[in-house]
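Q: Given only this backbone (235 positions), what sequence would you predict?
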């Protein structure tokens, strides 16, 4: 979820809680006024219409306060979840902005390769959809494949951008879990792997240690989409 969306949801949740807290305060004031009125008129043990009305009002306000407190507690849980998501999104945003050149190149190349593979696969499914009879097509492609054929170039690209970003962020987290704050990427080298695709190998240094990065690729042809496996370990 985008930082802007999370920020807006956090603001809405905080506003909702604030309004409910104000409503609770108003109802507590009304309860206090009703209680004082009962005491002033000596109606504590009375069952006159006036006394019953005042007591019913107090009970009604009390029930409202209990309901509002439950709603606040539920919204507070949602708010806490949004804040955690925002913290993660902001941290990831910072990581992405600070990506070294080799990781930016890898991310971009992944998207390009995946876009090409996915659009060709989509076009093949669509060609078979019009050429094969229904039974044969259904035997050849599962439901996910049949839904995939409806994706636009833009949808394919956007999905691949997110997937590549997730892969890079995962790599960064795994490296940082060993090195702590990263101080030097200069020992990482980009080289050609399977099919000429860029792979990363080398060392990353940080304030708490040094990590070795080794990557391999597979697929990218026939029925298997290109994927990259990156191994990270402490040295």
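A: Predicted residues:
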């Amino acid at each position: 979820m985008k930082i802007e969306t999370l920020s807006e949801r956090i603001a809405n949740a905080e506003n909702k809680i604030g309004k409910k807290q104000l409503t609770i305060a108003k109802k507590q004031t009304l309860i206090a006024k009703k209680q004082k009125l009962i005491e002033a008129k000596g109606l504590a043990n009375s069952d006159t219409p006036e006394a019953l009305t005042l007591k019913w009002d107090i009970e009604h306000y009390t029930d409202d306060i209990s309901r509002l407190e439950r709603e606040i507690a539920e919204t507070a849980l949602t708010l806490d979840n949004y804040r955690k998501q925002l913290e993660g999104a902001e941290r990831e945003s910072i990581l992405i902005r600070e990506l070294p050149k080799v990781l930016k190149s890898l991310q971009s190349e992944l998207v390009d390769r995946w876009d090409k593979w996915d659009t060709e696969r989509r076009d093949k499914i669509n060609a078979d959809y019009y050429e094969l009879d229904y039974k044969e097509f259904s035997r050849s492609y599962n439901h996910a494949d049949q839904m995939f054929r409806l994706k636009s170039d833009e949808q394919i690209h956007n999905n691949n951008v997110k997937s590549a970003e997730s892969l890079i962020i995962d790599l960064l987290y795994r490296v940082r879990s060993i090195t702590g704050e990263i101080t030097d990427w200069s020992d990482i080298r980009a080289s050609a792997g399977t099919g000429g695709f860029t792979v990363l190998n080398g060392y990353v240094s940080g304030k708490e240690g040094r990590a070795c990065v080794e990557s391999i690729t597979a697929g990218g042809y026939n029925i298997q989409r290109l994927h990259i496996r990156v191994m990270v370990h402490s040295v």
